[in-house]
Amino acid sequence: MSNAFAQKVPSVMKTSFSKEALAQKITDTDGKTTTISKILEKHKGKVLVIDLWASWCRDCLNAMPKAKELEEKNTNIDFVFLSLDRNFEAWKKGLEKHNMQNKENYWFNEGWKNNFNNYIDLNWIPRYLVINQKSEIAKYYAITPEDPEIQKTIDELSK
């Protein structure tokens, strides 16, 4: 079976989130539940990069060094990591294994098919979104941290 359709670029580049996407519940590393809306509220006023990944995802792991470089180059912006690991224990082990415990991490306990991921047309990971200071989507679709549009968007928003 081919993944020829896995990385199909969405036909509509969304600039805001639906109520359902914002209400999506996710779990933090302490096992407490929050929502996408509360995470965006926490980072309002800042540029935010959302990194969707999983510890079982080879493409995600291969992208990690470049994602780390992006983070180190942009110390003035916030990064949030949303995991699609299959269970809480695997996610926590993955955070440790890949030295990500000190980052802001959340896990989709409902799995891949949830209101947030459906809304953003998630069909492949890793996936990166850049969120502006008003919690709007500034860069909707990037599948590598090396996508020059990510840095260009960050630079434009940081002026």
Q: Helices and strands: which structural class?
A: alpha/beta
Number of domains: 1
CATH superfamily: Glutaredoxin
Shape assignment: globular
Main sheet record: 7 strands, mixed
Element-level helix/strand string:
HEEHEHEHEHEEH
CATH architecture: 3-Layer(aba) Sandwich
Arrangement of strands in the largest sheet: 2-1-5-4-3-6-7
What is the number of beta strands? 7
Distance between the termini: 46 Å
Give the strand content: 15-25%
Mean pLDDT metric: 93
Question: Helicity, in percent?
Answer: 25-40%
Cα Rg: 15 Å
The number of helices is 6
Q: Which consecutive residue ranges, at least 5 long each, have pLDDT under 50?
A: 1-5
Subcellular location: Cell envelope
Main location: other
InterPro entries: Thioredoxin-like_fold (IPR012336), Thioredoxin-like_sf (IPR036249), Thioredoxin_domain (IPR013766), Thioredoxin_ResA/DsbE_sf (IPR050553)
Keywords: Cytochrome c-type biogenesis, Disulfide bond, Redox-active center
Characteristics:
7-stranded mixed β-sheet; 6 helices; single chain; redox-active center; Glutaredoxin; 7 strands; disordered N terminus; alpha/beta; 159 residues; disulfide bond; globular
